[in-house]
Amino acid sequence: MKKLFAALALPLIALAIAFAAPVSAQSSRDAVWIQIAARPSLREAESEARTYAARLPDVSGYALGGGWYGVVLGPYARDDAERVLQVYRAEGQIPRDSFIAFRRNLRSQFYPVAADATPPAEPEAAPAPAAPAQAEPEPQQQAALQSTLPDESPAEARRSERALSREQRMELQVALKAAGFYNSGIDGAFGRGTRASMRDWQAARGFEPTGVLTTAQRQVLLDEYNAPLISVGMARVEDAKAGIALQMPADEVAFDRYESPFAHYTSKGDLGAQVLLISQPGDKRTLFGLYDILQTLEIVPLDGPRQRGSDSFTIEGRNDRIVSFTQASLKNGEVKGFTLIWPTGDEDRRTRVLAAMQASFTRLGSVLDPAAGGDVVQDIDLVSGLEIRKPKLSRSGFFVDGNGSVLTTSDVVVGCTRITLDHGYQAEVAANDAAGGIAILRPAEPLAPAAVAELSTSSPRLQSEVAVSGFSYEGVLGAPSLTWGKIADVKSLDGNTDMARLDLAAQPGDAGGPVIDSTGAVHGMLLPRQPDGKQLPEGVSFAVNAEALRGALNAAGVIAASKSPAAGSLPSAAIARLASGMTVLVSCWE
Fold it and tell me: Which of 312, 295, 445, 297 is nearest to 381 (CA)?
């Protein structure tokens, strides 16, 4: 029955694979391969390539770097490669951990031509594969495919197995589980379940199903499991200046520079991976400060879990381009760790690379000099050579109650996936009156403002002096500034009495800031410079008056403090302190 089933199945395989058209010379730039084996010697790889070629089409062999040689199928278009991979895996024609490989993974070709080429030459069009002549290859033929190492008898295999450490036994269980043959705990005990998984793996690979792996078979299994790491050239890197050693994808990243607290290992291939080593002297404040700073950088997307303990933290961020993972810990007055940045869509390989980096991370006896990279050209938009994440739009706002509720302008809350106060505090839109230009925000967690606006209970006098407190340059200066001017009219150009016209030269970032008089009372909120698309002369600005602001706040259930006109004038320095305490940067993030 088994022979009959195989005889029926193999023509179906050939029929499915036949639809995978070979890549033409014109599209070879986008070609991909399927890596099915990797061997540490050229002789083994050549033998394996010949054996595969006897029963499968499109077989070739390339050096992978680091002393490893790979056997691949292809080239194919990406969609065709995934179909070929699925069918061949399902029928046991190739190992289950075979994966898509790219041109950048392959170096000089050794099969079927001499090893005299640089990264793969333009592929020749290959005919659609035909069904093998035999319904089922002989076990001896498939076994030869796997390894040229000396074979062992079952008794010899048991003796060599007894010499394995518990860690080595656990590693074999992990490899069997990754290949889909084992689904129990990783305990290093070769019980009934582990033996059954070994027999299944041996049968799938064409070996005699004894349930005891020989030395050569164990090596084949581990080579299959480690193929994703081999494909990126995982190798131990010791950075003496940073005082860190770990496994790193050396075919994809290379050292570039030091800019404290980072050692930058930038991408050197098409994959786009990056690694940062973190190393600096410090204490808990240093560690916690690093945790906050990292989350302001472009390389750490906003979505993803974060965890901070008393002496360590981890941060994971994901978007449609990259996945970023950072870990750092404090020990003996030194903060050390690393960041791995990997392209989205390559999760299986990223997970393996990250696990290898974590398992191999070792602290050495030195720490990066805090002055390292001090001679690099500085940029306000960079932190240690890394780009700061920028909001879509930033405007000003001001606190109106003791819980941290904020008044701001409507335009800053439109189309945002996230709104923050002073870049660090999440806020939600409690109300938005687009017609009036007023938005009310509530912080995700209650805040304790340094000062709270007191809305004036009277209209300002014409030509009286006022100031707008705002982040004129959208937060670049780090603190609000005062811009002085006068009340030009208590209504808008079209007669709207909820607005006032100001003789005041405001900047775009000032919009949403409070309009304050000499007593410290708030008479209104500055609106964006061009209401309704009008082009206005320089020095003309508009503000929503205090009465309209109070009405919007009451409708949202926010009670604002009031200030009567009887209050005396304050010194300029006191007004500046008051304004700075109540004004907050409001940012909209994509």
Answer: 297
Rounded CA-CA distance 431/443 in Å is 13
Q: Is there a cis peptide before residue 112, judged by omega within 30 degrees of 0?
A: yes
CB 341, CB 324: distance < 8 Å: yes
Residues pairing with 245 in the sheet: 238, 362
* pLDDT less than 50: residues of the chain: 1-19, 24-26, 114-119, 121-148, 377-382
Contact present, 349 and 251 (Cβ < 8 Å): no
Of 272, 412, 246, nearest to 342 (Cα)?
A: 272
Phi, psi of 330 (to 5 degrees): -105, 125
Q: Residues with Cβ < 8 Å from 298, sequence gap 6 or more?
A: 386, 387, 388, 389
CA distance 276 to 202: 41
Query: How far is the C-alpha of 115 from the C-alpha of 187, rounded, in Å?
Result: 43
The label of the residue with tokens 């014109």 reads: 26
Helix (H) or strand (E) holding 523: strand 522-526
Strand pairing partners for 17?
A: none
Structural contact between residues 386 and 380, judged by C-beta atoms closer than 8 angstroms = no
Is-contact 82 19, C-beta < 8 A?
no
Q: How does strand 59-65 pair with strand 244-249?
A: unpaired
Cβ 466 vs Cβ 515: under 8 Å: yes
Of the chain, the end-to-end C-alpha distance in Å amounts to 60
Residues 6+ apart with CB under 8 A from 513: 396, 397, 398, 468, 469, 470, 471, 480, 525, 526, 583
- Judge contact between 176 and 225, C-beta under 8 A: no
**Residue 188: burial class (beta carbons within 10 Å; 0-12, 13-18, 19+):** middle
pLDDT tens-digit map of 2-17: 333 333 344 444 444 4
